[in-house]
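FORM 7B: Structural annotation worksheet

SECTION A. Query
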Amino acid sequence: MNDCIAVNIQDMLKAIGEEKLLKLLSDFSCPLNKEVEDFE
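SECTION B. Predicted structure
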């Protein structure tokens, strides 16, 4: 079973800033639902 943590993306943005958040999310992928891969 995969362990995961749900995090509010707005809270992450405030905590680490846009540049670090974009870098963190840059390698995110979801093969089952490609639409959720677009953060722009």
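SECTION C. Observations
Residues 1-40 form one domain. Residues 13 and 20 are 8 Å apart (CA to CA).

SECTION D. Sign-off
Analyst initials: ____
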